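Changelog excerpt

This revision adds worked examples to the README so contributors can see how folded entries look when concatenated. The first example is reproduced verbatim below.
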Amino acid sequence: MTEPSGGNTDKPRRPVVVPAVALVTFTAVGITALLGGLNEAPEQPDPLSEGAVLDQGLYSTKFVGSRVKIEPAQNEWDEEKRFVELVFNVTNNSDETLLVGLPPEKVEQAYTSTFFAGSLVKIDPAFPGEDAGPFAYALSKGGETRQLHPGVPTEVILRYKLQKGQQPPAKISLDVASYEFASQFNNNVEAWRMISKEVGQKHLPEIKARVTMSVKKGDSA
């Protein structure tokens, strides 16, 4: 008598071997899918430090460094003042005189600014206190100014006042945006505008670079 065509069903089956590389690939793809897809991971901004030069489109900026500046008391009723200063060398690449400006209070407020300091969209750590600042100005032959003239490299100071007993941070980190010459959001007229993306009801600036500067201590005014 012949055996059934199905053979002996009690015969042990040989295990299927899956290459380890395939398992790793499958796992990686699965995790990536859970995180939102292969092409949706957010790009990290370029990490820079003091001395770096960044092309911001509208500005060319050298991040000179950061320091503690001490202003001695002017009389017996006055008090010594201490500031953390961030120093930049900025060239206005446009054909018009622009303002130094101030950093935005909130990130979502930054995209309308063409001021230089408006591109410093996040500063970490923050400096508490109503009189802490920020204060910003440029230095010229005539003293302090708030203007940046076309094509002229200009030293810019951004400063924060330290409160009594407050220690300066060891480092300061800046999230820096950039600009493009393009049509405006509400018309076809080309002009300089901050590069941003629409997220819900907000326009959030794209971070061109994250700059970390060590704070040097002990400079007197």
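The second example, added in the same revision:
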Amino acid sequence: MLQCDFQFQHADFTLNAQLQMQEQLLGIMGPSGSGKSTLLKNLVGLLQPQQGFIRLNERALFDDLHRLNMPMHKRRIALIFQKAWLFPHMNVQQNLQYAEKLTLQVAQKFQYTDIVDLLELQPLLKRRVHELSGGEAQRVSIGRALLSSPDLLLLDEPLTGLDRRLKSQILPFLNNVKTQTKLPMLYVTHHAEELEYLNAQIMYLEQGKLIT
């Protein structure tokens, strides 16, 4: 699965990330400013480490010794942010199909109809983005991420900003993604109860270092 040992430095902050992820779902917890989002951005390719390596399924994504830094669009990693990022000029169906069209048919892991059923998106398909609640938009964001057929799904505080009712609606869908797709997931959050619900293994990020 995921193996990394890299260092990223910005200003006076240093992230030393040493990780061998064997679990299907790994949770990362830590206080604000500990480097959780920075870790995910390095993995997906939004940031570049100064040294070290990142490998996914034995495929090198970054390796400073070999001067390799694979572009983000080739890493096959999907990142779900705190706030759903959707194309506002498209309806839900178009947002989902856009992700599917970008994936070669031979590389598709999930079928459109299966994802729509898994996340119960059928009633939302014709809605525009501005007509969605926060919870609905995040479900669409998860669906679009899955339809990009990633090898790894990163979730950066995906329930932040949602009230308790909406969180209780989204967590079962995330659990469905875990149990029915078997897709490896790295889940960053401040809230231990989310990871407990999903029965995730947990690591802690403190002052830029991962600890068990």
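Reviewer comment on example two: Helices lie at 36-44, 92-101, 112-118, 134-147, 164-181, 192-197. DSSP finds six helices and eleven strands in the chain.
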